[in-house]
# Entry
Amino acid sequence: MITLQPVTRENYNECLALERAQFDFVGDATAVLANAYIYRDSSLAYAVCEEDTVIGMVLLDETGKDGSYEFTDLFIADNYRNQGYGDKAVKAILSHFSRKGATHVHMQVHKDNKAAIHVYKKNGFSIKGTSPWDENFIVMELSFY
# Structure
């Protein structure tokens, strides 16, 4: 079962040890933790866990404005890719936001990241347009109503 656990002193080193040979679309654990620090007033880094093993990371918006939440930097470590964990991680993220009372969840994904786009569409996300900060990214959104 996939769970999301806040990155803490206890799992920090395990998060940093996640192997990522390919950085075409999403950074590594260091990038997620740096973004979490920069956006610490509203976001929190989470370890994506399979049972007690950290297999990936994600940065979640914890404030939600008017019921709208977002996530960024979701990645699954290389040795766990192509096994359905990305799909399960998205479901865990949506469950997390649903418990917080979300009405919408949005995120941005590189337009060439076909595998991720497929997973997001499979979980109910639709493309809303191009990112205002980089035309290589598309904005996707899911509505809970």
